[in-house]
Design a protein that fits this description.
Length: about 110
């Protein structure tokens, strides 16, 4: 009897972890998910771990110049992503679709 309860608890906890992980990955592909705090936390964690790996490699290689430049590129990428998310948060949310009449004349798009 106890083994049946433990088995069902193990299966239920594994299913909950799979649902949470699957929900996280399916949420990434939905519009507006880049402003989700969980996604931003995971993104910052990934950038932080990458910086930590590059820093440890820089120390192990006694200051390899290539790793220094990779660290600079990684920090610039991290800053640009943070800036982009900040700009997304400043844009007002639009409900529905904006309908504009557009015509193409002479290779240029003209809004009516």
């Amino acid at each position: 009897m106890d083994s049946d309860i433990q088995t069902s608890l193990t299966v239920n906890s594994a299913a909950q972890k799979d649902d949470a992980l699957g929900g996280f990955f399916s949420n990434i592909l939905t519009p507006g998910s880049s402003l989700n705090p969980t996604f931003l936390l995971v993104l910052d964690g990934a950038f932080g771990l990458l910086l930590l790996v590059l820093l440890s490699l820089l120390i192990l290689t006694h200051g390899n110049l290539h790793l220094l430049f990779l660290m600079i590129i990684e920090c610039c990428l991290w800053a640009s992503v943070k800036w982009f998310v900040h700009e997304l948060q400043q844009v007002p949310v639009q409900n529905g679709t904006a309908s504009t009449n557009k015509t193409i004349q002479g290779g240029k798009v003209k809004e009516d």
